[in-house]
Amino acid sequence: MGGRRRVLYILSSHWDREWYEPFQVFRHRLVRLLDGVLAGLEDGRLAGPFTTDGQTIVLDDYLEVRPERRPAVERLAREGRLVVGPWYVLPDEFLVSGESLIRNLELGHAAARALGAEPSRAGFVCDLFGHLSQLPRLLAGFGIDNAFVWRGHHLPRERHLLWQGADGTELVCYHFPPRGYCGYARAVRVGPTPHGTPTHEEQRAALEDYLDAEADASVLEPLLIFDGGDHQEWDAGHYAVIAGAMRERGGKWQLSHGSLDEYAALMRDARHLITTRHAGEMRETLHEPGTAQLIPGVLSSRVPLKQANAECETLLCHWAEPLALRATQQLGTEYPDGFLRLAWKTLIENHPHDSICGCSIDQVHEDMLYRFSQCRRIASRIAEESASLIAARIEGAVPANGARIVLFNPLPHQFRGTTEIDLDVPPDYPVFREAGCDEPLPAFILNGPSGETIPYQRLGQAMNRIRHRLRPTKSGEIHHVHRVRVSIPVELPPLGWSTLTMQPAPPNVPTRCSVPGTLLDGPATLDNGILSVRAMRDGTLQVFDQRSGEEYSGLMTVEDRADIGDGWFHGVAVNDAPETPAAANVAIACIESGPFVSALRIRRKCPVARAFDFERMQRCEERAVLTIDTVVRLRPGSDIVECETRIDNTALDHRLRLLFPTGAKRSSFLTDSAFDVVERPVALPADNHKRAELAVETHPMRSWCALSDDQRGLAILATGLHECAVPDLPERPLALTLFRSTRRTYLTDGEPGGQLTGALVFRYALKFFRGAPNRAALCREAQRLAAGVRTAQLRAADQRIHGGPGALPGQGFGFELTGPAVLTSLRRVRGGVEARFFNPQSGSGNVRLGWKHTGMKFAAAHLVEFDGRLVGKPLAIERSSATVRLGPKQIATLRLTQR
Questions:
Q1: What backbone torsions phi and psi does residue 509 show, to the nearest 5 degrees?
Q2: Are the C-beta atoms of residues 791 and 406 closer than 8 Å to each other?
Q3: Which pLDDT band holds residue 2 (cuts at 50, 70, 90)?
Q4: Cβ atoms of 599 and 487 closer than 8 Å
Q5: What is the pLDDT of residues 195-251, one digit of tens each?
Q6: Are the beta carbons of 387 and 792 closer than 8 angstroms?
Q7: Any bridge partners for residue 394, and if so which?
C-alpha cells in the first residue's frame, strides 16, 4: 500500500429518538443539531455530506417543527449533502418480526424519495444488540450489498469481513473499532476525558495516532473515520482540524469528507482482499474490555411492550392486510393504503432499539403504549370493516329473526378443529332453565353453510350487554344483546371463511350440546386419546403422550430468582440462588368440560422474596405471595396443550421463568427467528470465564423453541415472549422467561415502571412430538396461536348498511400455500397482489401458491425483490396457481397481476 492512503471522514450523529429522555426532549436537541448542520452546509463551513444516522425519521421529526425548512432539506438531500436512509428507524432486530424490518426499510426508502433523494445504500446497523442470520438477505432485497456492524461479533483488530446470511446471501462488511461508532469522537475529538476540550494541535496529533491504528487493522487501502457519537452536534471547531487535514497535499493520508455509500463502494471493489468470514447470527458477547457488549437482557425487559408489539404485527399481517385485499379484489372496495401505511408507521416508531428493548425511562415506555394503541385501533378497524363487508355480500338475505356469523381463517392452510366464538344473541330469543337452576339460558340453533345443524358447547354468558349500530346518514342506534360464548367444531378453507346462521329455538325447547362426552377424565385430568394431561398437587403438569408412550413430569415448574440488573441486563446477585417456590396452596378447578374443549384452572400461591436489599446485597427475608393462575386447555384430536398464565406480581427485583423438563438427550435446541430457524447450543462457551461480558444461557426466539430426540420432544409456542433457554441439566428443561422485574433505569435514581407490578398475562402452548420437529409446521402453529379465528356477525339491518346481500359463497376459499413454506405477508401493493413466504427447512422444496376457488383471476406471476424489482423471468400460471422452488432458508416474494 505505497503512497498516501485514502481516508473517508463521515459526519453523523447517532440519534436515539427516545432513551434517557423522552422523545420531545430529544427532539428539542435534534432541531438545534439540524439547524446547525443546515446552516453549515448552506454557508460553506461544512462541506458535507451529513449522514442522518441511517434513518429518515430524524428529518420527519425535524420538519414537523421546522416546516419552512423543507425546501432546504429537499435541496440538500437531492444534492447528496444530506444522506438519508435506508431505514425509517434503526430497529432492534430480534424483538420485531422480519416483516416489520422489511416495512421499516420500505418506509425509509419512501421517506427519502419524498424528499427528492435516493435512499442510502449503506447497511448501517451501528448500535443494534446483535444481528439476525437473515439480515444480509433483508438488506440485499433493497439493493444493499454491505453492512456497517459492531455488536455481536468479536473482531477487535480487524475492520472488514464477509458475512454470509442463512440463505447464502453475502455482504461485505465494515466492523467498527472496539469502541464502536463513538470511538473516533472519544479518541480524537473529545479526548480521553468525557468532557475534554483538547486543543487543535492535540486533536491533530490524536488524529494521526488514530489513523495509524486503523491502518494496522485494515487489509483494505481506504480507511474510515466515523464521527457520529450519541446525540452529538456538529463540532465546528474540530471540523476545522479535519478541513485542514483535507487541504494537505503531503503526508501519509489523503483525507476527504464522504459518505458510507462511498466507502461501501470502495469495500466492494476490494472484497477479494478480505479473508475473514462469518456465517449466521452475530450474537457473541464481549470478549475484551472496551469492545462491544451484546446486551442480551433486553429480550425479557418490560415484557408487556413485546406482547403489544406482537399483537399489532399479527393484526396487520394476518388480519388487516389480507382481509382488506380480499374485500378489494372481490368487492371492488378501495384498498386502505393510507390507513395501513399510518398503522405501520406508528408501530415502527416503537421499534428503535432503546424503545422496544424496554431499556429507557418510564415516560418513553408510556408513550409507546399510546402508539401501540393507535396502531391496534387502525388495524382492528380495517379488519372489522373488511370482514363485515365480506359477510354482508354473501349470497342470501340474513333472516329477520336470525343472525349471520362468518368465521375467517388467517392462514393459507385448511383449519379443522374447534374454536371459541362470542355470539350476540338477540334479547327476544326464548330462554330455558335447567331443573333446580333459575339462570336463564338463551335458546338458539346454529346452522352451517349447507343448512346442517352445528353442535355447540356453551361456555359462558353475559346478559343484556349494550351494542350500537352506526348508519352512514343517521344517528347511532343502541341495542342490547345476550353475549354467549360457545365452542364449536369448524372446517375453514385456507385464508377463507365459513358461514353460520343463528336462529331462535322453538319456545320451551332447551338447546344443549348434541355431542356427548367430555375431555375431562377425573377431577384433575384431561384426556383426548392422544395426550393425557394431569394437574399435580404442586401445581405442575404431568403429560403422557399416548402415541410414543413417553411421560413428561414437572411441566410448568416456577423458577424465581433475584434480578439486580436493568432493562439491558439480567443482573445475577452473588448472594442469590434460584428458587422453585413450593406453593403454599394449590387449587385445581375444572372450568370447562365438554366434547369440544375442556380446561383446568391451576391456582398457585407462591411465596417469594418481596424485594432485593441493595444494602445487604441479598434478597430480603420478607415474603410476597404471588398468585399464579394457569388455565390449561385440551381439544379433541390435538397434540397441543394451550396455556394462559395470569400473575399478580407483588414482588420486586426478580426474574420469573417456567421450566418444562423434556428429558431429551440433546446438546442443542431450536428456536425460530425472523425468516429462519436457528440451532442453539445448550452449553455455554468453554472460554466464558475469560470474557468481559459473560455469555448467558438465554437465547432469543420469535414465537417458539423446541428440543427433541428420537423418543421424545417438546416445543413451546408463545406470543410476545422472546426469551428462552435450556439449562445444562440432565432433564434438559425448556425455560420460558415470563418477565423480569427491575428498578434500575439509566441516568435515573431508579423508576417503578420496570418492576411490572400488578396483573400480567402470558399465552403459550405445549406441543408434544418425537424425532426432528417439522419447522414449518411449528411456525404455522405459532401463527395460529397468535392470530386465532376472527368472526363477523350481522343482523338483517347490518347487512343492508353494508350493501348486501351479494353473490359471495357461504364458504369462501382464499389463497392456499403448500410445501415447506410459511406465509408472512399477503397484501395489495404496486397494483398487484404480493405474497411473501420463506422456507425454514434445511432442504429445498417446491412451494405452490394457489387461488383456484377464490374467483380471482391473474394473468401474470413474477418473483420480486423486497423493494419491488423484478427477479428473473415470469412464472407459469397453471390451474390458478404458481410454483416456486425454494432453497434452504430462502425467502420469496411473489407478485400476481391481472395484466
A1: -110, 115
A2: yes
A3: low
A4: no
A5: 778 999 999 999 999 999 999 999 999 999 999 999 999 999 999 999 999 999 888
A6: yes
A7: 808
Write down the residue that cell numbers 420469496 correspond to.
892
CB 390 within 8 A of CB 798: no
Rounded to 5°, the CA angle 579-581-582 comes to 145
pLDDT at 848 over 80: yes
Closest residue by Cα to residue 308 from 761, 665, 704: 761
Pull the grid cell for residue 161.
469481513
Cα gap 32→469, rounded to integer Å: 50
d(CA 186, CA 209): 13
**401-431: pLDDT as tens digits:** 999 999 999 999 999 999 999 999 999 999 9
Please check whether residue 89 is in contact with residue 348, taking contact to mean a CB–CB distance below 8 angstroms: yes
Query: What is the identity of the amino acid at 349?
Result: E
Average pLDDT over residues 253-272: 97
Cell of 24: 420531545
Tell me the pairing of strands 50-51 and 5-12: parallel
Q: Which three cell numbers stand for residue 546?
A: 399416548
Nearest one of 622, 613, 628 to 576, comparing CA atoms: 613
Secondary structure in 3-state letters for 247-300: HCCCCCEEEEECCHHHHHHHHHHCHHHCCCEEECCECCCCCCCCCCCCCHHHHH
Instruction: Write down the residue that cell numbers 416474494 correspond to.
Output: 893
Q: Report how far Cα 551 is from the mean position of its chain's Cα atoms.
A: 33
Q: What angle do CA 708, 658, 649 make, to 5 degrees?
A: 160
CA dihedral (797, 802, 806, 808) in degrees, to 10, reads -110
Provide the grid cell at 579. Answer: 428458587
Q: 18 and 265 in contact (C-beta within 8 Å)?
A: no
- How far does CA 524 lie from the centroid of its chain? 36
Count of C-beta atoms within a 10 Å radius of residue 553 = 15
Q: How far is it, in rounded angstroms, from Cα 610 to Cα 619? A: 8
State the Cα–Cα distance between residues 99 and 54, nearest whole angstrom: 19
Q: 856 in helix, strand or coil?
A: coil
Report the DSSP beta bridge partners of residue 699. Answer: 724
From CA 216, how far away is CA 105, in angstroms rounded? 35
The answer for residues whose C-beta is within 8 angstroms of residue 792's C-beta and 6 or more apart is: 384, 387, 388, 390, 391, 405, 406, 408
- DSSP β-bridge partners for residue 534: 525, 542
Cα distances (Å, whole numbers) of residue 485 to 244, 407, 467, 592 = 76, 14, 16, 12
A 10 A CB-CB count for 710 gives 12
pLDDT at residue 495 greater than cutoff 70: yes
Q: What is the pTM of this model?
A: 0.98
User: From the centroid of its chain, how far is CA 642?
Assistant: 21
Single-letter residue type at 41: L
Q: What is the mean pLDDT of residues 8-27?
A: 98
SS3 labels along 540-567: CEEEEECCCCEEEEEECEEEEEECCCEC
Interval 606-623: pLDDT, tens = 999 999 999 999 999 999
In order of 120, 201, 618, 830, 853, the CA distances from 881 in angstroms are: 37, 70, 63, 20, 11
The residues, any chain, with a CB within 8 Å of residue 729's CB and separated by 6 or more, are: none
CB 839 within 8 A of CB 886: yes
* Per-residue pLDDT band at 83 (split at 50, 70, 90): very high
The CA-atom distances, in angstroms, between 54 and each of 15, 16, 72, 112, 536 are 10, 12, 20, 11, 54
Which tens digit of pLDDT belongs to each residue from 625-681?
Answer: 999 999 999 999 999 999 999 999 999 999 999 999 999 999 999 999 999 999 999
With beta carbons less than 8 A apart as the criterion, state whether 798 and 469 touch. Answer: yes
DSSP 505: P
Cα separation, 533 vs 550, whole angstroms: 12
- Asked if residues 37 and 66 have their Cβ atoms less than 8 Å apart, the reply is no
Q: pLDDT tens across 274-308, in order?
A: 999 999 999 999 888 877 899 999 999 999 999 99
Contact 223, 13 (CB under 8 A): no
